[in-house]
Amino acid sequence: MAKYLLLKHYRGAPASVNDVPMDQWTPEEISAHVQYMHDFAARLEETGEFVDSQALAPEGTFVRYDGEGRPPVTDGPFAETKDVIAGWMVIDVDSYERAIELAGELSAAPGAGGKPIHEWLEVRTLLAEPPTITDCLFK
Amino acid sequence: MNEALLRSLTPSVLAILVRRGADFAAAEDAVQDALVEAVRVWPADPPRDPKGWLITVAWNRFLDATRADAARRRREDLVDDEPAPGPARALDDTLQLYFLCAHPSLTPSSAVALTLRAVGGLTTRQIAQAYLVPEATMAQRISRAKRTVSGVRFDQPGDVATVLRVLYLVFNEGYSGDVDLAAEAIRLTRQLAAAIDHPEVAGLLALMLLHHARRATRTAPDGSLVPLAEQDRGRWDIKSIAEGVEILQAALARDRLGEFQAQAAIAALHADALTAEETDWVQIVEWYDELARLTDSPVVRLNRAVAVGEADGPRAGLAALAAVDDSLPRHAAVAAYLHERDGDLATAARLYAEAAQKAPNLAERDHLTRQAARLNARRRR
Question: Which candidate from B297, B359, B364 shows the least CB-CB separation from A137?
Answer without folding.
Answer: B297
